[in-house]
Specification:
single chain, 14 helices
């Protein structure tokens, strides 16, 4: 029988799980760079293999644990397809391109705009209230993105405009995961949704190949890196974050997950030799402020 945790223990355990998940996500840039260098894969083919291997692991796990979880309703397929195509398939392509063009640290900063984008899209599509607090969050994130992207104060860094735009596209496609998920989250087990959207993402990316020799791997020595990429940056991150959501309010978990920015910066500096300038650091801090503002209600801010 699972031991029941006291409220304080639950909170501490949840925080630790989110931090570990964030470190897992923050490590993805290291795997992406090494896989591309050692295997000669394109960002598209790398995304294909990531989603394919993840789908196989998820399928085996569901078949072993509870095959009934594979059942979904026909009327929910359009939502799953939308999530798989946009939130997984296209997102993973954009993410790989961004990491390779601007580095893992800046890519992570750009992607951290996702909660802000969710707020803006929810206001535009679902007519959710746009409060002063949310407006301030949007302004903070916009200012932080401008600073991090090198539009001001980055004369010493040679940043890639296309990489910045693709990075913002990655944030938008990742944000769509929450919007699509609103419809399905109460209907299915998290791992059921994850299996289907990764599988649909795999098919989507395969269609991008358009008969090219890829995505078949070339080069040697990429298997350990690919398994590490899938297990650490995908499976572990998702699993621990999902468990943390049962111990913490979702709004608090989102804020703690911004630790991914710090972990990506540290890991990229150690293993890839990347560095963030002072303006990028300040920009990342502003984006984190925006995420905090948009994620918490007034009474929740006092509880952190």
């Amino acid at each position: 029988m699972e031991k029941k945790l006291a409220p304080r223990e639950k909170r501490i355990t949840g925080i630790i799980l989110v931090i570990i998940a964030s470190v897992g996500w923050g490590s993805s840039g290291i795997f992406i760079v090494n896989i591309v260098e050692k295997g000669g894969l394109s960002p598209v083919s790398l995304a294909f293999w990531r989603d394919l291997v993840s789908s196989i692991i998820l399928l085996i796990g569901l078949l072993v644990s509870n095959p009934k979880l594979l059942r979904v309703k026909k009327e929910d397929l359009p939502w799953l397809i939308g999530m798989g195509v946009i939130s997984i398939g296209i997102f993973h392509i954009f993410w790989n391109i961004t990491v390779l063009r601007v580095g893992a640290s800046l890519a992570t900063v750009l992607q951290s705009n996702a909660p802000i984008i969710v707020t803006m899209l929810a206001w535009a599509l679902f007519k959710e209230e746009l409060t002063i607090r949310k407006i301030l969050a949007i302004l903070a994130a916009a200012g932080g993105t401008i600073m991090a992207a090198g539009i001001i104060g980055q004369q010493d860094l040679h940043l890639d405009p296309l990489g910045i735009w693709v990075g913002l596209g990655a944030a938008v496609t990742y944000a769509s995961l929450s919007l699509f998920g609103k419809k399905l989250s109460g209907e299915y087990n998290f791992w059921t949704i994850t299996f289907y959207i990764f599988s649909i993402g795999t098919i989507t990316i395969f269609l991008f190949q358009a008969g090219r020799p890829e995505p078949w791997p070339v080069g040697s020595g990429i298997l350990p890196w690919m398994l590490g990429f899938v297990l650490m940056s995908t499976m572990v991150g998702f699993a621990l974050y999902t468990k943390a959501l049962s111990l913490l309010p979702a709004s608090v978990a989102v804020i703690i997950s911004t630790a991914e920015i710090l972990s990506a910066a540290i890991l990229s500096a150690i293993f890839l030799g990347e560095r963030m300038g002072i303006w990028q650091i300040l920009g990342a801090a502003l984006i984190i402020v925006g995420v905090v503002l948009v994620s918490l209600r007034k009474r929740q801010i006092a509880e952190i």
